[in-house]
Amino acid sequence: MCGAAIPSVQASDKEYAIKAGFLYNFALYGRWSSSFTERDNFVICSQDHNFIAIANRVLGDRNVKHKPITTQTISHSAASIQQCDMFFVSANTQENWPTINHQQHQNTMFIGETEHFIKQGGHIRFFLASGKIRFEISPKHLKQSGLSMSSKVLRLGRVVER
């Protein structure tokens, strides 16, 4: 396997800022089905307060398909996740990930940063390779959730089918 897993330690603000930028691009090049048109905002959620604070600073004035981006710190309850277009699972909050029934959350893109994230049903996973943040992506898991990703993004990441 290429690249090491991001350790379960507090990520730096710079690392979270870069990941927030990646999420923005995933949002621009991702395709959602019905629920996307039902919301007034594009909602990025996480249980990690630090990530949300940084994402808000980085993405606060951005739009996705003419919708302003909103960031929210939420619990991992089904009702909370339903309001999210994207849900970021940090290494600091990954202990709750296996308890989330992500298959019931159509139209929510799940992005994480722990080694087995995609094997556990996630859509996109960040990892470090040669000191740079890279990502792997599962088009199969995206499709099962009513999502898809542009081939432009797929070419930049490592496509996995797990």
UniProtKB/TrEMBL annotation:
InterPro entries: YfiR/HmsC-like (IPR025293). Pfam families: DUF4154. This is YfiR family protein. It comes from Shewanella maritima.
